Amino acid sequence: MRRVRVPLGKRGYDILIGENLLPGLGAHCSRLRFGKRALVISDKTVARLYGSQVVNGLAEAGFEAAIHAIPAGEQAKSLENVQVCYERCAKHRLERNSFIVALGGGVVGDLAGFVAATYLRGINFVQAPTTLLAQVDSSVGGKVGVNLPAGKNLVGAFYQPKLVLCDIVTLKTMEEREYRSGLAEVIKYGIIYDAKLFGRLEKSMDRLMRREEGILSRVIERSCAIKGEVVRQDETEGGLRAILNFGHTIGHALEAISQYGKYLHGEAIAIGQMAAARLSQMRAGLSASDVRRIKTVFESAGLPTEVVLSGGETRDLLNAMKLDKKVSNGIIKFVLAEKIGKVKFGCEVPEKSVLAALTTAHGRHS
Ligand SMILES: NC(=O)c1ccc[n+]([C@@H]2O[C@H](COP(=O)([O-])OP(=O)(O)OC[C@H]3O[C@@H](n4cnc5c(N)ncnc54)[C@H](O)[C@@H]3O)[C@@H](O)[C@H]2O)c1
Ligand SMILES: [Zn+2]
User: How many Cβ atoms are within 10 Å of 171's Cβ, its own excluded?
Assistant: First the structure.
């Protein structure tokens, strides 16, 4: 088992990464001296696969655990489901020292975390992420929340878990497309922070695609350590945390103009990161060979690197970028790479460069 400490002083916590950790979740919670009562929040797919392991493990460790499963999918990350979860918390008589376990992907983690942050003004929270994206990204860093009809993640809080338990065996049952999508975030960590990780991904992508445990646990450990380190330096998103958004300005806009239907998040940010790499070549000195290496890694992970847009769609994309939560006074700022492993943030980029980065993807004719 590997252990990464997220060093946030009194709010610091461990991320445990390894095989077959879920049945032992109860034992880990005993060490944290939580109260007796626990509510496991999951989704229907994950609850069917892993719910009983977790609930039984909690019972063996002496906890009184109930499970509540929301429907699977992004739609379920809603205030309506927060309300339903509050009612389950009340019915199961959770108290201030009780705890909530999020068992599932990022949807479950964000929703259950928001419930934990707000029920009784905050109760203990444990993350048991079961998707690659959740293990390397959403379960680390303490951002929790839900969507509104007006937009994604508009209601939320910063609320750190007490423990994150990444059981890599769960990744075996993920759908192929979802799994690849998670790899886009792993590749991002290499580009923004760690040339050595990037090199390892280049060398071992085939083993990673086969979901081999050895390489998976190393890569997840390194990804969590990087996110933890960035979050330590900037817990509430005042500065450095922006680097985690490499490729996301364009990626989010692409998700928005396709009504969140066409691309998975990882696919949209793979395209976004390629466009950001080209922008970096134009404006931050990223070498042509690094741009090629980045493209090759995304391709070897089976991720898209290009998008062909009509004139109208390009306009929509630029407008969507300006609506991004992180834009202030209408100025879009980009994270740009100087070389693989090193980025700078807050770079203002003229619209014509963004357009060029989007279009050079499919030949220089447009
Ligand atoms: N809080 C943050 O910092 C942060 C960061 C990134 C993303 N997010 C959020 O995360 C969400 C996306 O997370 P996600 O990609 O994990 O999606 P998800 O939670 O919807 O999971 C994807 C699908 O995989 C299924 N699934 C989950 N684990 C499985 C397993 N082990 N085997 C088989 N099927 C499994 C789920 O039922 C679901 O259908 C978004 O809502 C996004 O906003 C949050
Ligand atoms: Zn992302």
Answer: 20
